[in-house]
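Re: the 380-residue chain
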Amino acid sequence: MLEDRTTAPPTEGPKGPDAPQAPQGPARGETTAATAVPGPAAPWPTAYPSGYAVVDVETTGLSRDDRIISAAVYRLDARGEVEDHWYTLVNPQRDPGPVWIHGLTSDKLAGAPLFADIAEEFAARLADRVLVAHNAVFDWSMIAREYARATRTAPVRQRLCTIALSKELGLPLPNHKLESLAAHFGVVQRQAHHALDDARVLAEAFRPSLHAAASGGVRLPLLECRALTEWSDGAARIGPQSTGPGSFGGANPSYRPGSWRPSRKRPACPHPNPGRWQDGKPLKQGMRVAFSGDTSVERELLEDRAFEAGLHIATSVSRLTSLLVTNDPDSGTSKTTKARAFGTPVVDEAAFGQLLQDVAPADGTPGSVPPPGGPAPSDG
């Protein structure tokens, strides 16, 4: 069996003779749905990442001020084979939240290390790998905030959500719960909401998903991860934006460290709506742009850049919407559903970043519109 390295005893869940034992990694020789899948017949895609860190974190809640109380990482190689796994409890220095879900009481967490104490080892598990998680935007957000509180930066550049991957593969799942993905691949879930077992289940389900994607030539739904660089008064602040390849940032003075601000109402767009965007043509000032779903750039920052370029930020989709920006056009959100019904053009975040570099001025407005940032982002 793979060594289960912990920095605190994984004594989660209820006590007693009938209580489930802390889950372990797959035993040597144990055949699971993940290990039974043969390699793809087609050559392995050269553009695929060289390694993955399958992550699960349990938290005190779902808000931006909640804390991580346990974390697990399964490191996988380029083809999804398990290299090792790691698990730790984390003392959140506050109420542990929904104990009836994760089973972690204040007494169990009292002797656990603080996040700052395990940050270096956690980082070593994530470095130079794509972070894989189920609903990855949540796990990444919690991790990024914990590193910001510890005045450090998480070494993660890209993430992959297994929900998005299952949609890309067209898996016939009844819903997007981890238990449904596990059942589809015959993976046995031993202790739900235990970070180590959830990470194991996800690692076993991710391997056949990865091989299916490779066999079918599916582009992995990778998204860029932007680290938080400061934490003050319970609010994250975005740091300087990179100007390197694959960056959405640029030397935009509006987004220097410490300039991040709470959500607020923007002034009305001064330009009339010129109608829908047409493929192959530039955006025009006054166009109504809506956003839906997970984005690699902080949503408010993305909206600010669109507003600075002279676009109208729409909070919903209607017949007047010029463009919907989403990285998951097949999702069932109200915005994507309405976009399909109205025939609203849809582009992903990377394409929108390119369009922002050359926004045409509104009718009757002289000159050109400077781009609101640096190079457009890469979508992996």
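The two ends are 34 Å apart (CA to CA).
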